Structure formats: C-alpha cells, structure tokens
Amino acid sequence: MKKCVIVGSNSYLAQNLENYFPDMIVYKLNHRNWLQNVELLKSADYVINFCINPNNFDEDVDPNSVIDVHIARELLHSNALFFFLSSRKVYGRSSRLLTYYEESELKPFDFYSRNKLRVGTVLKDILGPRLSILRISNILGNPEIKEGYNTFMGWITKNFLEHGRLVINQSKFTVRDFITKRYFHYVLSSLVRNNVVGVHNISSNINIPLGTLLGCIVGNENVIEQESNITDQFLLSNEKIYCYLDQVLTKDVLIRELLDYRNELFSFRAKYQK
User: Fold this and answer.
1) Which of 26, 80, 255, 260 could be disulfide-bonded to 18 (CB atoms 3.0-4.6 Å)?
2) What is the rounded CA–CA span in Å between residue 167 and residue 185?
3) CB 258 within 8 A of CB 213
4) What is the DSSP-derived secondary structure letter of residue 100?
C-alpha cells in the first residue's frame, strides 16, 4: 500500500483527513516529533505539511527557517511527492471581481502572502518536479476555538461566541471564493492519489456575496455591515483540477453545508454560554 505522512496532526485542516485515504497507510506527525521521524518521511510516497510558523502573519520570514523547507531538504534524496499549502492571497487583491488562474500575475500584498510565495520558490528549487503547490481559497468548516487560529472560520467562531454577531468591514455584496473543509479534504486526497504536481488552485469558483454566506452560518440579522466599501474580491478558477475529480462543489451543496455548520455553531455557543 502507498504511504502518506501528514505533518501537523493538531492543525484544524488536518483533522480527519486520514479518513479520505482508506487505500493508504497514513501516519500523522506534529511539529515536535517530525524531525525524529525523518526516515519515515523519506520512505513515504506522499508528504503533506499543515504546520505553519505563526510569525508568517506578522513579519517577513526567512524561507530557510520554515518547516516546509526543512522537510523538503530531508526529502531531497527520496521519491516522496511533497504537497505545499499556499494561499489565494499570492494573486493580490482587487475591488473588482477578478478570476485568478494558475498563470495569473502574482501580487502578494501582506506578510502572509509574501511568505507563502517566497517559500514556494525555495521549495521549487529543492524538489523541482516532486512538488505540488496548492493555492487555496477560504475554507469554512466546523466551529472551533483555538489559540493562534488565524483563519476566517476562527474569526467567525470567536466573534459569534463572544458577541452573538459578526461585524464586517466590507460590503455585504463583496464576492469571495469559499470551499468547505470536507470539499478541501476530498480535492486534496484526489490530487495526492493522482500524483498531481505543479501549481493548482483549490476553489469553488462560486459567486456568492459575503453577506449571504455569513447569513447562512449565523443568521442574516447577526451580520452587521460596518463599512460598505469593497476592497477585496476574488474567484479562483478550478478548471485545472476538474480531470482529477468525480464531484465538484455546487452552490446548493455549499449552502447546505453552511447550514450544517450553522447548527454546529449555535450548539457550540449554547455550551459556551453555560
């Protein structure tokens, strides 16, 4: 059987990913013990890293200090394919609704996107054709409160639990690309299983306003628009990955899953308030 190693077992996005690899032997490591298991990494067919340096969000980080680069150097003389989780932010931001393709010009605009782009460049130099760079849109999933959890779903959970509402500094009509954690796991596992390397977007390419999306999760009455400006809109083309998938995320399925997250979030809040 093929062997897949997931580094970052405590990561929100890594939770339950092993369920999508029933045909493989899956090992899960964390940021503390991966270095003690280098031989396991070298013997793997696939390695996926979910660990991230928290400084990535706040400062320009030397790529050589990042765990992805450390892992890649250990894999240099192996046969393993390495899957690097990048971000849609490397394409930049725009008040106009633009669709970004893998070949689009890259315009990183904050610490996080610049760090992702730099690390991806270094990884290419190390692993070449054994590297898969995945540029991922916003991911929504089950509610969770976690220290240092700097994601869109973390923001939703924290603010709704503490204040019972979401105050947004963007127009409710802002359009952004969203996928669910379930769909992310499905796509990632399909790309791994098909030995997909190179650069690929993981997205829905679904046009849905921010107000509608958040309203599905917390209720329309609990979404407060503080500002009406539109400064960051985007869709990601996902045409390049279609050939590896048996299913795509439709708007109806996305909304249905958001309503499931809403039920979980309200139950979570009821327990939080006790």
Assistant:
1) 26
2) 29
3) yes
4) E
Nearest of 189, 187, 97, 176 to residue 137 by alpha carbon: 176
Q: What is the CA radius of gyration of the chain?
A: 19
Strands (E), the chain: 2-7, 24-29, 46-49, 81-87, 99-100, 131-136, 138-140, 166-168, 178-180, 198-202, 223-225, 235-236
pLDDT of residue 140: 93
| Nearest in space to 190 (alpha carbons), one of 109, 83, 98 | 83
For 54, 143, 246, 263, 265, the CA distances from 272, given in Å and listed in that order, are 26, 12, 39, 14, 10
Each residue's pLDDT tens digit, 155-201: 899 899 888 999 998 899 999 999 999 999 999 999 999 999 999 99
pLDDT per residue as tens digits for the range 225-239: 988 888 899 999 999
Structure tokens at 5: 């190693």
- How far apart, in Å, are the Cα atoms of 234 and each of 173, 190, 237, 260? 12, 24, 10, 25
- Structure-derived torsion over alpha carbons of residues 50, 117, 149, 4, reported in degrees to the nearest 10: -10
What is the full DSSP assignment across 204-256?
Answer: -----BHHHHHHHHH-GGGEEES--------EE--GGGGGG-S----HHHHHH
User: Which residues on neighbouring strands pair with residue 135, listed in sequence order?
Assistant: 86, 201
CA distances (Å), origin 29, targets 2, 26, 185:
17, 10, 18
Burial of residue 107 (CB within 10 Å: 0-12, 13-18, 19+) is middle
Q: Which domains does the chain have, with CATH numbers?
A: 2-272 (3.40.50.720)
